[in-house]
Amino acid sequence: MLILGIESSCDETAASVVKDCTETLSSVIASQAAEHGLYGGVVPELASRRHCENILAVVQQALADAHVTVEDLDGIAVTHTPGLIGALLVGVNFAKGLAMAADKPLIPVHHLTGHIAANYLAHPQLKPPYLCLVVSGGHTLLCEVKSHTEYEIIGTTRDDAAGECFDKCARVLGYPYPGGVHIDRAAQQGDSTKYVLPRPKVAGSELDCSFSGLKTAVINMVHHAEQKGETIDTASMAASLQHTVSEILAEKTLLAAKQTGYTTIAMAGGVSANSGLRSAMEKMCRKHGYTLYMPPLSLCGDNAAMIACQGSYNYLAGVRADESLNAYASSKLSIAAAKGTAIL
Ligand code: KG4
Ligand code: ZN
Description:
Blueprint: E1 2-7, E2 12-19, E3 23-31, H1 33-37, H2 44-66, E4 75-81, H3 85-102, E5 106-110, H4 111-122, E6 130-135, E7 140-147, E8 150-156, H5 162-172, H6 180-187, H7 212-227, H8 234-260, E9 264-268, H9 275-288, E10 291-293, H10 297-300, H11 305-316, H12 335-338
Parallel strand pairs: 1-4, 4-5, 6-9, 9-10
Antiparallel strand pairs: 1-2, 2-3, 6-7, 7-8
């Protein structure tokens, strides 16, 4: 079974061919990050234009690298939610056109389920059910992965995502966009005990978290220091922030594991590349005897291999879309969304 995956939800135009769910035959990524970096963040209109310019060449390259033609494919999978609407529409419309022209099944994929599926590419022995911590630029959630296509969210952020918190703090500390990786690098040189940062409590669900108070605390500390003419030790602030975010996420995951009884835990999304979070999760899992799966760094960020992988499982589960498939900027990760009917 050969599935072509197409991803264009943010600032990466990507295409990949995956064989039999987990064997990556090709993975092409055209990143726009450097260009958006000039503006300090993703410029949606620019992202859409670049996707339009790049998508044909990226898909052709993915097919060529895999030594397959469109005729060889069993299906065409595409990210249809969530993300920047203009950016998503480029991938969705390209996939629709290709599927119709080649008379191939069109398979919708929820971007976050793709991030989760990145683990199957690296660890084919990982099988549902398990608990997954999903941490990306726009989302932070804990979910039960009940099958390859069924999920239940059991905790989420009440406000900012962890990636958003890293990126906004990085910006105020003077690091370029996207800032998460710069926080990670700077943190290696800093003292994580130098600045004491708040660990916001969330009323209601114990498994929910909140990062906006933490972000505001960092921004305020930097501004107050500037006003007083003091200099912030940016490496130590980065280390303190990374330590606090990592501890919060590892604690919430532990609580979720205890409540649900899962002993297999996975991580997914761009922030799962963070070295502090990886070691906090490793430490927690070692201590409690849990088995931890993390995507390799190359599969943490946006790519199309993860979309082709999840697309393969959706295909096997009978998930199909027709030419009425639309893109949705935001949608809940739900069984319905994974099956192609996005709930807004
Ligand atoms: O999953 P992703 O590539 O895109 C979304 O689906 O949102 O995640 C991007 C996020 C950004 O916030 C980026 O700063 C963060 O992942 N990120 C990191 C690291 N690498 C990427 N955050 C902390 N440490 C890293 N090493
Ligand atoms: Zn992503």
